[in-house]
Amino acid sequence: MQAWLSFLSTLSQSAANLGHRQVILLSGPLDWSWPLLKPWLAQHKNNAIISQNIPAGIDGKQLPANKPGNLLGYESDNVVFNCHEGLYPDALTAISGTLICGGVLFILCPDTQLWPNHTDDFAMNRAPHAPGAMPTPNNYHMVRRLLQKSKLHKIHVIKQGDELPSLPATPLAVWQAPSNLTRDQKQVFQGIYNTFSLKKYIHVITADRGRGKSHLLGKLLDNLINSGIDNGIKCYLTAPNKTACLAVYKALEHSKPWVTEHITFIPPEKVLSTVTQHDILLVDEAASLPIDLLVQYSTHLNKLILATTTHGYEGTGKGFQIRFFSHLKNLDSSKGIHRHTLTSPVRYSDTDPLEHWLFDAFCLKSEPKGLNLNHLQVVNPFVKVFDQQQLATDNPFLEEVFGLLIQAHYQTRPSDLRDILDAPGFRLFAVLNGNDRQPTLLAACLIGDEGPVHNLPTDNHETNPSLHQDIFNGLRRPKGHLIPQVLAHHMGLVQALKLKGARIIRIATLPNLQQQNLGSLLLTYVSRHLKNNHYDYLGSSYADTKDVRSFWLKNNFKRVRIGNKKDAASGTYSALTMKGLSPQGIELEQTAEAIFLRSTNQIESRAQLTDIENQLLNAFLTQRGSYEHAKQLLSRFKHWDMDFPKKASKEFKRQVSNWLHRNSL
Fold it and tell me: How high is the pLDDT of residue 407?
C-alpha cells in the first residue's frame, strides 16, 4: 500500500508541476479497487464520487451520474467514476471539468478485456423494449474507443496484480496558474468594462471548460461595484443553480466585504419579475438554461452579460450558439451586442492529458472538412449507408459525422456518440461528394428502428390487459419506440404498435451547403431503402419552427402532432411528422393527420366526439390515459369553463365527469 500511495503522490506532484490532471483506469473487481483508493482519498478534502454504491470509509461527495447538469460549478481534488455501474458519457465529460491541476480522475472499470461486453445501467437504460432473448446491451464500440484513445494519450491502466508503472522524474520547472487575469481575460474584461457606462449592452462569453469565464465574471462584478459606476443600479447573478456560481464567488474571496452584499443571486425563473431594465444581469452556464428564457432576457433587459461552456455536459454548447446567436442577429442594434471567446486554459495547461483524451475520445473538437465547400464544388453527390461497425473502425469519418451533428444540432452531447456507435437498431445514411478522391461528407441522417412493439401473451384478456392496452391507458411505457407509443397513447392509434417503423434521430446538412436539396436527396434515398426492406413508415420528432416544418412538408411528410410544452433547450414546441411506406403505414399516416387536423375544431357536445376521442377521454377518466390529449380535447368544448391543474387528480377527473354529464343533457 505504501508503494501505491508513493506512486500516486509522485504522479500528482508531477502533474501539478506540469499543469496537468491525470487519469488512472483501475481495471479489476471493485473489492480490489475501492480499498486502494481509501487511504489516498482520506488525504484530500474535495473528492467527487460518481457511484450508486460507496463502501463505508470512503471520503467524498456522492454525485449523480444521470443528472450531469448538477455537476457544474464544483472543484475536485480527485474524481472517482464507477464504470462497473455505468459508463455515462455526459457525466464523465462534465465531472472531468471540476478536477483541479494535480488532481486524478480514477475510473473504476472491469478488466479491459471484458469491459466492452460488460452490461451496465447506462446501456440497459438506453436499450429499447424487445420480447424474448436480446443481445446483451453494452457500450462495446464506445468502450473500445476510450481504451484505444487511452493508449494514444498514454493514460495509465492498472490491473490487479500488475506492477506499478514507472514514472519519469518529477519536473523541476513548476507550472504556475495565472495569478492575475490572462491576456485573453484582460481583453474580454476591458471590452466589457468599457461599456458599463452605456445604457444598453449584451455581452456573450463562450469558452471551453477551465478557461476562467466564471472567474472573469467575478472580477467584473468586483470592479463594477467598487468603481461606483453603478449609481444605485443593482447587480444580479443567475445560473441553473447557485452551485454553478461557486467559481464566481471564489473570485470575490479577497474582495471587500460589501462587494458580495451588493450581488443578488436569483433563480432563472424569477429574473423577469425581479430585474428591471436598468439593472445588470450576469448569467453563468447560460447554455444550460432554456433558450426561450435567454431570448426573453435579451429582449426585456438592457444590460446583460452571459457566459457559457462550449464543451462538457452541455455536449457542444452549439445549441446556445446556433439558436441564441441567431436570435441576437435580429435584435435592435442599439443594444450593442458583443461576442467574446476565451481560449487559454487557466486551471491547467494547454497540454493537459485529461482534456485531450476526452475531447479526442468523444470527438468534441471535431469539425467537418466540408465547411469550406461551396455549391459549385458539389458534383454527383451520392448516398451511402454505414453500420456501427464501419463507423467504429473509421475514425476520420466518425469525426466528420459527429462534427456535422455538432454544427447542426443544438442538443448534441457526448452520449450521442455512444448511441451512434452502440445503440441497438441505429444506422447512418450519408451524402458524400462524388467529386473527391476521398468523398467529403455533405449531409447525414441517423435513424433508429421503432416497432413493432410485440404484445405480451396473456391468459385472460379480460382480467389481464395486453401491453398494447396498457400503453393506450398510460399504465406502461416500455423503453424506446417513441413514435408508435405517442400515436397509441396520445392519439388512440393502437395499430401503430403493430407496425415496423424507423425514426430519424438526427438529420443535418453542412451549414454552407443548405438550400441545395441535399437533405431532400437523403430523405428520398432513406425512404426508398426502408420501403425496399419492408418498413411501414418513417417519422421524426423535431422542433416545430417554420423553416424545419417546410422542409418536412416539401418531402411529403405529414405533421401529425404538436406537443403542448416548449422544449427547454430549443424554446420551441416539438412536433411529430411521418410518411407512410407500406399500405398499412400510409393508412396510419392519413388517419393520424386527420386526427391532427380535427384537433382545432370546436365541439358543441360530447355527441360530436369520434370513437377514438371517446376512447381517449374514457381512458383519461378511468385509467391513466393521456392528460395532454384530454386538455386539448376538453378545451375545444364551446362552454368549457374549468382551469387545468398541473396534475390530474382523482378529484379533478370527478369534476370533469360531472361537467361532461351536465353539458350532455
Answer: 78
